[in-house]
Amino acid sequence: MTAFTDITLAPLLPPAALIALAGALVLPTLWGLWRRARGIVVRLLPGVALLLVLANPQWLVERRAPLSDVAVVAVDDSASNQWGDRPARTEAALSDLRAALERQPDLEVRWVRVTDGPGDQGTRLLSAVARSLADVPADRRAGVIALTDGRAHDPRALTAEGLGAPLHVLLTGVPDARDRRLVVEAAPGYGLVGRPVDVTLRLEDPALAAGEPVPVAVRADGRDRGTVTLPANRAETLTLPLTHAGDTVFELVAPAVPDEITDRNNRAALSVSGVRDRLRVLLISGEPHAGERVWRNLLKADPGVDLVHFTILRPPTKDDATPLRELALIAFPIRELFQDRLSSFDLIIFDRYSRRGLVPRTYLANVADYVTEGGALLLAVGPEASDPISLTDSALSEVLPIGPARAVVDEVFRPLPTDDGRRHPVTAALPGLDDGPDGTPGWGRWARVIEVTPTDGRTVLTGAEGRPVLHLSRRGEGRVGLLLSDTIWLWSKGFEGGGPQAELLRRLAHWLMKEPELEEDALVGRADGDRLEITRRGMNPESLPETVTVTGPDGAARAVPLETTADGRATAIAAVDRPGVHVLDDGTLTTVVVAGTPNPRETDRVTATEAVLGPLAEASGGGVAWLATEGLPAVRRVGADSAASGGGWMGLRANGTYAVQGVDQRSLLPAWLAVLLVLGGLGLAWWREGR
Q1: pLDDT score recorded for residue 200
Q2: Is residue 517 part of a domain?
Q3: Assessment of whether the complete model's pTM goes beyond 0.85
Q4: Which run of H or of E encompasses 583?
Q5: Which of 150, 372, 454, 551 is the most buried (most CB within 10 A)?
Q6: Number of domains in the chain
């Protein structure tokens, strides 16, 4: 295609010479006109003709190639556009639209499939359109057609000015479809164990009147916790209990209703991390020894521990010459500690304590009851354990997993883990566990062990000649730990390199207080990106299950095989294709893992809507159509300044843009015409002068 564009000059003389020549013609002419000389104009014609020939005017002709306009068709393949008939309606409209666009001349179509954004970014539809148009000049943009449910989560990614073309939104859903959704409006991330947390919920259902009661089931860590009633379409605050440390996953499920789009968003999940409010520890020290300060320093160094420490050096009935100023100024609060406030302690430690007539049998019996009802007891014993007045021969013997001490073995030894110890969370993978020769611990040695006979429980560390050093047991609802050596303080002093004294005692105390992360028989799941890391711990490797059933947010269950590791654990990795709550069940234990966001955007609001993209479509000159009721609008090409939408049709701009491939110059005065003009002018002037 060629087109006239301009006229230009290609002078045969320098411009200064042409200007001088023009001046030489103009001045005499002006003089003649002023004197009213006859024939002055005719005399001027030969000079003008010569000047025009020397200016050499040229006609410019461009060789133009038309450029096609660019249209973008964005297809929503996100999770929210997969409900009901939306996928089929989308593909049917896409097929008809493809055929209609192929019939349009000079139109390049870019097809963009938009899936869920990474993490919980939702549908980034306008961002995808912006990327597709990034290399397209504004004068080549024909328009954008979006096949979507309208749930775009990046409405500010494009403006009408930035789009530069009409946006047509074809909604794949059904107008006024019903859907019930449960929304968590406010929830804490942390809470104190034993105290309730407040969670604000809102149950939205457009088919119900505001305040109409709806039953909602409550689950905690996969276990049913009863039913509460929520008012429809109003915010309501619930009180949920935190019963243990660590993460508690709450699920709230509203019943499905007929004809709603999905019941996936009828449930909401939230994870609340339980933390203990200053653990209360009662430490009763008896006979002074070199390691007495180990316990006090360890517990005092922890800001989360509220320590009550008493050292009992003599019974109150002892009569000797001790000066009054060196005796205690207050009476030992035995009744308050061992009866009135006993249940308020999270852990009770007896450090080398023996019966000296100070704590009556009745109060020790209270401690035994405290353990069976869920309390934690730790005995750190020394040579006093072999005395007739030791705690093994008291009311505490009912909960102690050992018989009376048989001997005190004063022999240097290195603590070694048993087979159970290498699997038990208290001692498994302790620092330095395998750093010694032949895979033995690289720890320093201890100097004494009390020889006892365990009656039940598990020995996790042994000493001289395989004698128990650390023994753990469960009694009723509570737990008991026995440290059968009073020389662990050698580790804190760095003797022979020392050892993980602080870590061992920390784990021991937290296991006694039932920290979930230290349960020896546990099913643990951890979300890492798009996969679940599953660990099944157990003290008997042969009894570990072979598979774990993983139930996803959509209710689909699958069996994941477990592989046994060298330390007696079983592990597996399962792929995660949907964010939300996943339930792990091995037939004995059940746990809940939240992968990604508990309440993802793509399942939060699932009704189709024009509220998000409608304003942008209107501002850009486009329109909105519901495929289910209006069908696919016809496609028209419209001018850049014409309306781009109307009843039953949508317009794509025909911009008429072109690219210049070359320019041809054609002289307006060919040689023969130039000679004719000059000679003609001279002849006319000669004829006029001849008259």
Answers
A1: 95
A2: no
A3: no
A4: strand 580-585
A5: 150
A6: 5
